[in-house]
Structures
1.
Amino acid sequence: QVQLVESGGGLVQAGGSLRLSCAASGRTFSTYNMGWFRQAPGKEREFVATFSSGGSTNYADSVKGRFTISRDVAKNTVYLQMNSLKPEDTAVYYCNTVRSGVNYWGQGTQVTVSS
């Protein structure tokens, strides 16, 4: 069983920044990919970024150059630094990992960007 707990969401003006955190349970944190997804009202959940077990990163085209995913193995935490935020980034952001074919999700954290 894996538990993921997100934090760091909030209300910010367009052009501002936020940093999301996702704390994961378990002692094998560094051996799994960790990812961020988001879901806006009335839309499907979509991929934002991943940090692989090997240390590589991947981003959705819509956030490239603005968002940065990183990992602190000692803290079992993955971060999403979000800069130059836009109103269209407004969504609930979810942390994700897959263990033995099972998808695990956090409870989500709301990010609202005002214009």
2.
Amino acid sequence: QVQLVESGGGLVQPGGSLRLSCAASGIIVSIYVMAWYRQAPGKQRELIARISRGGSTYYVDSVKGRFTISRDNAKNMVHLQMSSLKPEDTAVYFCNTGTGSRPWGQGTQVTVSS
């Protein structure tokens, strides 16, 4: 049974940083393209960062230069380091494969507000 558990969200002021983590079970993250997604209130879920099996990364323009996706194969985890956070980054953040093919976890809420 595949389980993806996101953590690390919270309330942060604009310009602040957070590090999100995704603990995976039932799936070996090193053999998949893994990604972070987010869903803001009233909007569709969107892919924001992706890491290939070889470590190549992709970011949507809105987070490029501010977010960094990484993978810890030994711990079977995926991380998202977020810096220079903006109010428009407020959303629930999820991890999944690059195609969103596995059951979605609960996500972790990130709120950027002063």
